Amino acid sequence: MVHTIIIFGASGDLTSRKLIPALYSLHQKGYLPQDTRVVGVSRSPFSSESWREALKGSTRKFSNGFDEQVWADFEKRVHYVPGDIAKTEDFVRLRRELDRLEGGQESTRVYYLSTSPTLYPAAIRHLGEAHAVALDGSVEPPLLGNDRRRLVVEKPFGTDLETAQQLNAQLHGVFAENQVYRIDHYLGKETVQNMLVLRFANSIFEPIWNRNYIDHVQITVAEEVMVGRRGGYYDKAGVLRDMFQNHLLQLLMITAMEAPARFTADMVRDEKVKVLQAIRKYHGDDFVQNTFRGQYEGYLQEDGVPAESRTPTFSAIKLHVDNWRWNGVPFYLRSGKAMSCRTTQIVIQFREPPHLLFNEDRRGSWDANQLVIQIQPAEGIQLQFHTKVPDAGMQLRMTNLDFSFSREFSGAMPDAYQRLLLDALNGDASLFARSDEVELAWGIIDPITQFWQQMNQPEIFRYPVGQWGPQESDEWIGQDGRRWFDVCPILH
Ligand code: BG6
What does the CA dihedral 330, 335, 341, 345 come to, rounded to 10 degrees? Predict the structure, then answer.
């Protein structure tokens, strides 16, 4: 069986920064299925040779451990076919070219849309049309329902529920759902996958992973970067569409889901979807109380940002998962640009002991146990617990047990794209978003953005660059008697 990955948008940034370095690293580690080819498609007038040459330079820059010899071997797999997404005939030509490169053998083809999302509809339609055309001597079976033909789509999956539904309808006109691999690169991060292992391969966490022991959960994706050159895009999106609809809700699902009966793509995703279905719907004033928004100082001066923009660059949202496990346990989701540091953390805040024997005067939820799962920059887990300070009466101190991937395992952590590309080639969709998941996520985000726009509430608080968002967000969570875990990476 031959494998071919076809990258539309071959001359783009994602291809040179992420996709090719990931494929190169997979090749270097011997993980790519034997006989895998990489075919780039775009309008740029490259030949295979000149594309390889360009990729060599970018891969040297963006991959760990570049090796001339390995590259020389890898580049034999790499080919280029010029083509325009707007033209069906170019897709027919591409099909012929793929047949030729594969020598007519049975093949798995993974089409990767690494283009602007505005081109998705044309690319999907033309892929379908090109396969409706008979090629002389071709053995190509129809596209729809052929699980050897897969399509990888990058976010954004629409900009709201309606456009997400339209995109899904376009996709389903040509591909069956199990042929579609929607990438959320957070799911390819090692620690996110390790959450599943932590929860479902250990028996000690399950009994305490619920409302009886957990007070609340905080999920923070803090970014130090500002919007930079992406002002035009970002101002239309805002932090909710850019980060919450996808990455933060994915982290919430992984944290809150039940154990699937088996580790299959659909069983995993069925359980994740149930979490989104259980999220409490907000009405009217709920949006004012349970959502918070901010904008960093200087955002209005960024390129592409209108001077009067009310787009939030920071937000915090309190969600309730109304089911037996999580009843009464709020999930605080928070993300922003221009924050103190780059870190992604899931903090499981446990309840206080039911009866405090020691240091009664220091009572407060901050002193209760915490499990911090750090997803980036370094990846690891920390459990915080009280110990007695030696030779100091009954004085207590919070101490911790750390686990860090880099200390425990040698070798660089793989970039998320390595895992996701490999899974797409091997036909495992567990770590990709399903259409219902995407639509349910929009169903949570849309009402919030609509309320913000229509009612112009809650207030947008400004924050200086390099802070944990607006100071008022401390008061916001403080009303619930809780505090943010404002700690820059705890593990290195
Ligand atoms: C992208 C967002 O999906 O994720 C960006 O569009 C954001 O705005 C990025 O910076 C964050 O990804 P990571 O892997 O750096 O946390």
Answer: 40
Give the Å distance between the CA of 399 and the centre of ligand 1: 32
- Residue 3 clears pLDDT 60, i.e. is over it: yes
Q: Given this model, what pLDDT does residue 97 score? A: 95
Q: How far is the CA of 333 from the centre of ligand 1 (A)?
A: 16
d(CA 20, CA 13): 10
Distances in Å between the Cα of 294 and the Cα atoms of 99, 117, 268, 474 are 53, 27, 34, 12
CB contact burial 64-96 (16+ within 10 A = b; e otherwise): eebeeebbeebbebbbbbbbebeebebbbebbb
Q: Residue 313 carries which DSSP code? A: S
Atom number of ligand 1 nearest to Cα 223: 10
Beta carbons of 171 and 180 less than 8 angstroms apart:
yes
Residue 492 to residue 489: CA distance in whole angstroms = 7
- Measure the CA–CA gap between 139 and 105, rounded to whole angstroms: 9
At residue 34, φ and ψ (nearest 5 deg) are -55, 150
CA 273 vs CA 376, 390, 416, 434: distances in Å: 25, 48, 22, 9
Please give the residue that has the higher pLDDT: either 323 or 356: 323
Mean pLDDT score, 11-25: 96
The confidence band for 32, taking pLDDT boundaries of 50, 70 and 90, is very high
Tell how far the Cα of 223 is from the centroid of ligand 1, in angstroms: 8
* pLDDT the model gives residue 406: 86
Secondary structure of 169-206 in HEC code, one letter for each residue: HHHHHHCCHHHEEEECHHHHCHHHHHHHHHHHCCCCCH
**Nearest ligand 1 atom, CA 247:** 3
What domains sit in the chain, N to C, each tagged with a CATH number? 2-183 (3.40.50.720), 187-478 (3.30.360.10)
What is the residue with the minimal CA distance to atom 4 of ligand 1? Answer: 243
For residue 170, pLDDT over 80 is answered with yes
Least confident of 77-81, 148-152, 420-424, 485-489: 485-489
